[in-house]
Amino acid sequence: MITQLTATEINTALRAKKVSVKEVTEAFLKRIENFDEEYGAYLALCPERALAEAEAAQAKIDAGDSGPLVGVPIAHKDNISTQGVETTCASKILQGYVPPYDATVVENCREAGMVLLGKTNLDEFAMGTSGENSALRLTRNPWDTDRVPGGSSAGSAAAVSAELACLATGSDTGGSIRMPASLTGLVGFKPTYGRVSRYGLVAFGSSLDQIGPFAKTVEDCSLFAEAMSGYDRKDSTSLQGSKISSADLKTGSLKGKKIALPRELFTDAIDPGVRESVEIAIDVLTREGVDFHEITLPSINYGVTTYYIIAPAEASSNLAKFDGVRFGSRVESTGHVEGFAATRGKLFGPEVKLRIMVGTYALSAGYYDAYYHRAQQVRGLMAAEFEQAFQEYDCILSPASPVTAFKIGEMVDDPMKLKLLDLCTIPANMGGFPSLSLPSSLAGDLPVGILLTGPVMGDEKLLQTAYNIDRALGRDYRRPPIL
Amino acid sequence: MADYVVSVGMEVHAELLTQSKMFCRCKVAFGGMPNTRVCPVCIGLPGTLPVPNRAAVEMVLKTALALNCTIAIDSVFHRKNYFYPDLPKGYQVSQYGDTNPIGYDGYLEIPTPEGGTKKIKIRRVHLEEDTGKLMHLPGGGSGVDYNRAGVPLMEIVTEFPPDIESPDDAREYLVQLRSLLVYLGVTDGKMAEGSVRCEPNISIREKGSTQYGTKTELKNLNSFRAVQLGVAFEAKRQAEVLESGGTVRQETRGWNEATESSFLMRTKESEQDYRYFPCPDLIPMHFSEEQIERVRSTIPELPLAKLQRYRADYALSDYDAGLLVADRDWAMFFEEALELGGEAKAICNWMNGDFAKMLNESGQGAMAGGKSHPERKTSLVRPEHLVDLAKLVSDATINGKMAKEIFAEVFDTGKMPSQIVEEKGLRQVTDTGAIASAVAEVLASNGSQVEAYRGGKESLIGFFVGQVMKKTQGRANPQLVQDELKKQLSGD
Question: Domain holding A211: CATH number?
């Protein structure tokens, strides 16, 4: 089945003319039609655009284009703007909104010859850890459809895992790529802040948001990150020289690599099964010559608290534009203010409203210094603590998630416990660091992710380390058993 | 009635003369069909991001330097959060804080009636974006025009306690500030089109008291006159409230141009909480010494300095010099004429007299710096025309009356005055023989008036001059005519 191949394999088959881009595209569209009912990965499909892009990709291949991802069918998270394709952020407030422009990543992917199949489900406005906060659809974990796929990029993880797309983009504000990648057995990567343009990504926490790839292998992940990255003058926070290179991915060695293990992420807060899986990996890597050191990064303990001030504060402002005046849905009322209140009151989901309220409070006069300003100071300390560690160590390794995929609905009554699950992933967003979740051995029947975090602009080295670790762990990509 | 003093804080917004908007590439212009100069960025579509307009940043930097401000080495943009339909993103990108605005702690000097100057302290000069405009639709309901949304807007705020202490001060501050901004080339200065908008905060207190009164904010002031009248009206209104035992409420009031009075728009019960925080989509601006010096070097001589120089170097009156410097292009015209050898007082008289009047009547603008007028039809009259004309008068080639007629022709045709004189043979008659015979003829044919003159009615001299000029088709040199008349009238 062509749909179970990696991106590299599909591209090779296309260039060998064993199959056409149209056939590959249609195979995926057919699979989506047959199986997405079960997984709930997609919010919108764009078969016409897909077939047009397939035709353009085929022309590139026929002209000898050697791009490594030409003709590979992908999906974009539905908080990434796509011209002519509805972009809802899984919120009722944006239902019916069709952007008149493509996000820079969407353009970059198209230029690299990838074919867009559709838009994937997410926690409403990317606010959630489990993927259960979509106002439009429930997404299930392909490893066990009674379980959550992880959030907020739930649909992207489910789509790639269930082979309903070869690759997918996600966005990661506090772990929204790495958490679901961990829970669905994929490679999920959040690049250094500023290496992938945010232009066209519907903002949640602007200083934390970063777009990145979901893939089955580190090689696919690196190539995909390379294709979507690069300086963009439309994003003032974009970094010069930010194109990610895959040239040296398969070089280097683990021998003598210094990797730090922060004590704060190997506590009882981590499920035993997860810890065991990560420790097995550490044993294997130690034998491969990796030089592991236990260190302490005390600021990690303030990460979740700090994050839940900064991200909602920025969100409260970013989401102010959703007033029903210019786009999306509107609830009619008398007067402007009343119209805003009715629209926002009825069409935002509970988690979004909660975060807007928290953020509004944190920014309000008299509380700004105690909350937002203080949180920014802690954030600075946290980044400094990590930067100091990177002076000595190549990267930091920990579990990506304290738990494996849990049952749908299991944590709805304990929102605090759910939020604490972002413990491992949040620091990378705070410091803008590149961070990647890589599958290790299963815990029970469920995937576990190892989290690797490196210094700013160290994306290539981090990917290279991940590639070598993956090889050392000696496993091929593992499909969900149901497939 | 107790003796009250008025204090005025001024908040002035100026739309910057950039090609494009503050954070996108949409064109900046006035009027036009609603929503024809908009894009995903300036209507705040989800996912869009701002890219700052460097020209706008430099214009504010230039203004801040001209207003003697301290320049913030690192200056950030903040988000000012509030809801209104004309605000596309639910927040306005602006600048907050005491030492964060591009410029702070400056001053502007304004002339005083006594001939001196007075410093008006400036608290801040910062950069922000304009909002759209809410409109009531003819068929009912409201619409929003976002053409103006995102236009770069500079805000200039005076320091507290205020230095502006009278309606005249308020007017003069705005006159000087507007003129300075136009000189700097950062705004077109059109108050009627809202390019420069002024919102004074007005309070009164009893003379001698150090306790400032509650202030009211005045809006819709579209001219210098309105500012002066508005401040005076508010001061009087507040005094009447206090005298009748009431208290002044903190409120925003509108100015009604027709009735020349203010009306209540809204009361400010509490300060609105705008939840300012640094805009995470924009990186801090950093100004290097080099950049600051480069921008400083582009600041031209400013209007007040120019006025003082004209007064000192050319012995022009405050009034005349004031008219010349009010508009930078006009002052440049004057200076170009002087460079070409024109005599200051004569050039000034032509400019502020006939030339200004004719430009006004024809709706034309004077060319400046060798360039045509940016908006209006450019007058054919160049500095060299006035220099030539003044010279023809000063060397007595033509007389003043002839000069006026010639100027009218220059204005219409753009011909050089000396060329007109040549073509039409308009040289003034200075031949004393010819003048003597004309005078003799006039005296011979006006016997009774000659009798009366000699009988003591010397005012008749004007009549005789007129008759001689008529006889010479206005070309006789009036001084020579007068001399000759006196000679012949007394000679017999």
Answer: 3.90.1300.10
CB B231 within 8 A of CB B29: no
Residues of chain A contacting residue B47, judged by C-beta atoms under 8 Å apart:
79-81, 87, 99, 103, 199-203
A77, A119, A190, A257: the active-site residue? A77
Q: Note whether B49 contacts A235, CB cutoff 8 Å.
A: yes
SS3 B182: helix
pLDDT for the residue numbered B83: 92
**Residue spans of chain A under pLDDT 70:** none
Question: Are both B247 and B307 inside the same structural domain?
Answer: no
Is residue A134 domain-resident?
A: yes
User: Residue A380 pairs with which residues in a beta bridge?
Assistant: none
A-proximal residues of B, 123-162, CB under 8 Å: 142, 144
Q: What is the ipTM of this complex?
A: 0.96
Tell me: do B143 and B263 sit in the same domain: yes
B-chain CB neighbours of A372 within 8 Å are: 277
- Is A329 a known active-site residue? no
pTM for the whole structure: 0.89
Q: Residue B354 sits in which domain range? A: 303-381+393-415
In this structure, the answer to whether residues B218 and B98 fall within a common structural domain is: yes
* A233 contact residues in B (CB cutoff 8 A): 51
pLDDT digits (tens, 9 = 90+) for A374-386: 999 999 999 999 9
pLDDT tens-digit series, residues A101-111: 999 999 999 99
Cβ–Cβ contact B44 with A under 8 A? yes
Closest chain B residue to the Cα of A367, Cα to Cα? B275
How far is residue B491 from each of residues B338, B461, B471, B483, B487, measured CA to CA in Å? 45, 15, 22, 12, 6
Written as six digits, the tokens of B166 are: 């009278």
A440 is catalytic: no
The CA distance from A468 to A459, in Å, is 14
- List, in sequence order, every residue forming a beta bridge with B121; answer none if it has no partner: B107
Partner-chain contact A237 B281, CB within 8 Å: yes
Catalytic residue among A176, A197, A401, A440: A176
List Cα–Cα distances, A174 to A195, B322, B407, in angstroms: 17, 63, 77
Taking the C-alpha atoms of residue B109 and residue A218, their distance in angstroms, rounded to an integer, is 66
- Residue of A79, A321, A337 with shortest CB distance to B44: A321
Give me the amino acid identity at B374: P
The number of distinct structural domains making up chain B is 3
A176 catalytic, yes or no?
yes
Domain membership flag for residue A265: no
Rounded CA separation B388/B386 (Å):
5
Same-domain pairing of A207 and A74:
yes
Query: What does residue A52 show for φ and ψ, rounded to 5 degrees?
Result: -65, -40
Asked if residue B106 and residue B200 are part of one domain, the reply reads yes
Q: Are residues B239 and B214 in the same domain?
A: yes
Per-residue tokens: B370: 């060798």
B4-15 vs B261-267, strand pairing mode: unpaired
pLDDT of residue B375: 67
Q: Taking CB atoms and an 8 Å cutoff, what residues of chain B touch A314?
A: 280
Same domain, B307 and B282: no
Cβ distance B51 to A236 less than 8 Å, yes or no, reads yes
B487 or B53, greater pLDDT: B53
B201-260 confidence digits (pLDDT tens): 999 999 999 899 999 999 989 999 999 999 999 999 999 999 999 999 999 999 999 999
Q: Do A363 and B83 touch (CB under 8 A)?
A: no
CB contact under 8 Å between A234 and B49, yes or no, is: yes
Under 8 Å CB-to-CB from A89, ≥6 apart: which residues?
A: A78, A79, A122, A124, A125, A126, A202, B46
Name the domain count of chain A: 2
Q: Classify residue A229: in a domain, yes or no.
A: yes
Query: Quick check: A97 and B46 CB within 8 A?
Result: yes
Note whether B441 and B465 are same-domain residues. yes
What is the domain range of residue A187?
2-248
